[in-house]
Amino acid sequence: MDTTKVADTNGTQPAAASKPGRVGTLATWADERLGLATAMKKNLRKVFPDHWSFMLGEIALWSFVVLLLTGVFLTLWFTPSMGETTYDGTYEQLRGIQMSEAFASTLRISFDVRGGLLMRQMHHWAAMLFVASMMVHLLRVWFTGAFRKPRELNWVIGCLLLLLGTLEGFTGYSLPDDLLSGTGIRAADGFIKATPVVGTYMSFFLFGGEFPGESIIPRLYTVHVLLIPGLLLALIGAHMLLLVYHKHTQWPGPGRTEKNVVGFPMLPVYAAKAGGFFFIVFGVTALMGALLSINPVWKYGPYDPSKVTAGSQPDWYMGWPDGALRIMPGIETHIWGVTISWNVMLPILVLPMLAFTVLLLLPFIDAWVTGDKRDHHLLYRPRNAPTRTALMVALMTMYGLFWAAGGNDIIAIKLHASINQITYFMRAAVLVGPILAFVITRRWCISLQRKDNETLLHGYETGIIMRSAEGGYSERHLPLPESRAYVLTARDRDPVANGEVTPEVDANGVAAPRKGRLAGLRDRMRTVMWADNVQKPTLEELEAGHHHADHEHELQASLDGHAADGHQFDGHHLVSEEHLRDPHH
Amino acid sequence: MRLLNRSAGRISKHRRGPVAGLVVLLLGLLLTGGLYAAFSPAQADETISSDEQIAKGRELFLVSCSFCHGQNGEGVRSADGNQLGPSLVGVGAAAVDFQVGTGRMPMAQPGAQAQAKPPTFTQDEIDALAAYVASLGPGPAVPDESDYSLEGMSDEERQAAITRGGQIFLTNCTACHNFEGSGGAMPRGGYAPHIRGVEPKYIYEALLTGPQNMPSFGNGDLSPEEKRDVIAYLGSLEDMPNYGGFGLGGLGPVPEGLAAWVIGIGLLVGAAVWIAAHTTRSTKKKVDA
Amino acid sequence: MSDDSHELMNLPDEGVTDDLYANPGLPEHAWRPTDVDPKLEKRAERQVATLMTLSAICTILLLVSYFTVDKDATFAGLGAQNLALGLSLAGALLFIGVGVIQWARKLMADHEIVEMRHPAASSQEDREATIAALNAGLEESGIGRRPLVRNSLLGAVGLLGLPAIVMLRDLGPTPNQVADAQDYPGAGLENTVWEEGTRVVRDVVGTPIRPGDLQIGDLVNAEPETLYNGGPDGEPLEGVVLQIAKSKAAVVVVRMEPEEITPAPGRENWNVDGITSYSKICTHVGCPISLYERTTHHLLCPCHQSTFDLADAGRVVFGPAARPLPQLPLAVDSEGYLVAQGDFNEPVGPSFWERG
């Protein structure tokens, strides 16, 4: 360690090796108090790989910042109270109407605070984007295998963020106390009351008495502006810390291995790109707030338990349990003097909790099935994990169908269809659709794997049609450039190909102990996971393929032994690398 | 910023606009046409007696309506007991004016719900049909404009009427027709139609007579003043600017969610692709490198 | 580094490449046109500066429109204030974003840097040292040797969890407390403000209804008169009491041909000349329902599409609801107005455990 720069006396002179510039002076001042240099030394030039799909989580991060900024603006005028007041603001259609102070202050923000409507709309759009981008990010992480060891805990944190983001959205949706949010709270009251044994007690405690009471909005307000944002902030911090600690995953490629990370340094390129992206997310939110009307509460009017509007829906992220609620048959059990409302409990309490638990456990289930204990920092293409990809597509299909069921009335008017038939269709589709999606996606991935192998073995299609002396036609194939061939082959062979699925003896030659039922299940799952996958070619296959290609090349090459023109422009080569055949050759 | 119209509805600011000439031309054509229509021989029939009108209505009825509604408007049941067309005795002139005036009758084909389309008959013919059907049995008459106009009210009264109309609308109408009258789905393929921009007369008649599956709101149910207020509220929605931007069809959270995904996520993922895309490369080497 | 061997243990070997192709290594850096052509470099610089200037202009526009664009101004049918503020803000932000990214893409050095990874796990020595420290600490505390201290501590801390739950008790009264106290009309899950002789009045306007007012096919969204005169001095109910009353007492009244009604057993005299009334609160999760079809007598819920047949005792004909709508028994009072014969004979709204 270089000790010359350490202050070893308590003198008046700062410890500095040379006369620093202005930035240096500031940095020294800060470091003498905070000692940041050690931590910053590595992190200022921390490397982030560059790929568009690595920026999806950033959308969520920046929309959260937009939510904080616009949210603070809104709290300056919002009154979280259900106290009754008579509206006398500038929106004429509601003047003189009795309403809660919460709704009156929402109208005030919308009409009497300049820019208030813009901030309300931006806040709402950013909330929708926040949850949406978290989901897109989650899909990217799953499809590319970034959830594997050592990143399982970050997956768990991400899932918690998704759950909290959804709850935060629901509480925000409820605060303005308009007709739609009140209808939502009323339905939530119905869900709570359907809880066995303690339902009515929970409802009375939550609402401070009978629905709607006068406590729910102040309570939700605290949850919305303090409790959940605090948790979100803490979890986002942990998520980012883990990201920095693990370093970002990267795609396999020339020079990119499990042991390194290749990309641009945090300062300046990544700071500029990420910082710029913040302004873009903020700007797109502003654009949407400017142009697209969202939640026009003045048209809904204040909440009134006897009023309702067609198209009463929650925001999109609550749409799928609402859809499940819509297509659930009306089953209720009356037994021993109590009522069990399966029709409410199953779709809105059990299903989302079950779905969330499964989502949370996915990396662990996956690790148990594969038995993989290695660290993974290189990503794979979704096609190279057909079963994982198919599983997520099946889950997406189920989600999408429940979601569509949540908009069955809108679908019915837009497609001139019968709401009853849509509901019957959805009841079957949510069960059949995911299975179909699983099978189709899996086979699709396997076909794509096969296509990759074709390209490796027989070269890529140039689009050049050759005519042989006998008059036969064939398309010319050319071998892939080596860097591309390397990328295609930079993936693991599945253990099944190495005969590792059900080892009868372990590495030391000791016979495996007799398997329990669980291990039997695991073996079957491993078979499903890998059995049909196409492995990358072996060295022998590759050589045989190349030999065959060379042979073909000889047959097809024009008389002067030169490749035909045209492939220079097929996108696989830099044009500068190859030249058109010299006409005088 | 010519379109930045500070006092919506005042025409003076537009007077010298480039479209002014076109407007004058169109007005001229309209006036000429109107004058021609006013003085054309066809109008000579205007003073026909109600008996003649009923007779003319019956003729039209026999040709266009009797197949489903019967020779004397008594309704027709098909062999298997289904109602082909309901009895028209006692439905009144208002029902005919609404159904035929909005093109719902005659129906193109039997179905769950008659759809609005361009009317088949002229207003004179509709009046004749209405007079005939009204003669079958007493029923609600076609409302007069004074029934649903806010004419002659002070500003405060007008505003109170609109506010009250809004509350009545939200209590009685939005459940089916949606909070801004965009319509909604009903059981078995039925639907509550979009009611924005519909002529006040037809809204009044629909309330009065309950067309198709819609419940009626007779004058004993919703007083004429209350109907007037609802119409005034709907009119005020029409005059109201879209404060927050484009309305996305006025269908609530479903199109909003779609917009968030398609427009919002679409734009931002597009931006991410652009940010991470590699810029063009040069074949040249850096001179001082 | 001393823990190299450990690193290798945790990281997978280079097996991914499987020796099919050797890793070609990072490709040679290719320069961008802006790196090699000073003219293009200047141009990119001007581009970025222009974007920043445009952003500044948008910010000024934002400030100007804040003070000049009136709340009632419109632009092509849209609210001009929201539009002007929003578009200028969007411009101000987007131009900065695009400019900064353009700076990064065109002008900042774009050499890719390689950084080595380290395993997430600590080194074996560190791990052992930590465990040793932990054990030393535990040993010194004597937590293993003194079960009495340990167990009483655990018990005491565990018990502290109880106040955290118990102190939430006063969030609200229990359902029974509310029903017994009767602090306001119709308190309790099983009650509403309907009583024998309560007039059925039109919602919003509060006027009573004579059977003769209604024609076949009419729908009235109605409330008990109590909402309009149930207060201490016959005043309208207000605030939370009004909201609670409304959330349970709202009804729909419809009139159909008397012979179309199939009354439930024991409810033969609950209708007046084909006028029948049901709770407006869905038995599924409690949305108000009034999407009535006059020819089928079906009532649809806009939230989850439960459909009830009002001609057939409020039976569920479609959707997720499991129970028929509660019916309000109707009669006519001495002045000829519609009144309730009494409260609903079952709780209205969504099901709950104790409902039976």
Describe this structure in words.
The complex is a heterotrimer of chains A (585), B (289) and C (356). Chain A is mostly helical. Chain A folds into 3 domains: 47-79 and 93-376, Up-down Bundle (Cytochrome Bc1 Complex, Chain C); 381-441, no CATH class; 442-503 and 513-577, no CATH class. Chain A has 19 helices and 8 strands. Chain A has helices at residues 22-34, 37-43, 56-75, 101-111, 116-144, 152-174, 179-193, 199-207, 216-246, 266-291, 297-300, 319-327, 342-370, 386-406, 408-415, 419-458, 482-489, 517-530, 539-556, and strands at 47-48, 84-86, 98-100, 260-265, 333-335, 338-340, 460-467, 473-478. In chain A, β5 and β6 (338-340) form a beta hairpin. The longest helix of chain A has 40 residues, at 419-458. The model of chain A is unreliable at 1-9 (pLDDT under 50). With 289 residues, chain B is mainly α. Among the domains of chain B are: 46-142, Cytochrome Bc1 Complex, Chain D, domain 2 (Orthogonal Bundle); 144-241, Cytochrome c-like domain (Cytochrome Bc1 Complex, Chain D, domain 2). Chain B has 11 helices and 5 strands. In chain B, the strands form 2 sheets. A two-stranded antiparallel sheet of chain B has the order 2-3. In chain B, α4 (92-101) crosses α9 and α9 (200-209) runs antiparallel to α10. Chain B is elongated. Residues 1-15 and 41-47 of chain B have low confidence and may be disordered. In chain C, β10 and β11 (315-318) form a beta hairpin. In chain C, the strands form 4 sheets. Chain C has a 5-stranded antiparallel sheet. A 4-stranded antiparallel sheet of chain C has the order 8-9-10-11, with no helix packed on it. Chain C has helices at residues 4-10, 33-36, 38-68, 80-106, 124-141, 147-166, 175-181, 226-229, 239-249, and strands at residues 74-75, 78-79, 113-116, 200-202, 219-224, 251-255, 275-279, 291-293, 298-300, 307-309, 315-318, 327-328, 330-332, 338-340. Among the domains of chain C are: 27-106; 188-355, 3-layer Sandwich (Rieske Iron-sulfur Protein), CATH 2.102.10. Chains in contact: A-B, A-C, B-C. At the A-C interface, α5, α7, α8, β4 and α10 of A face α4, β3 and α9 of C.
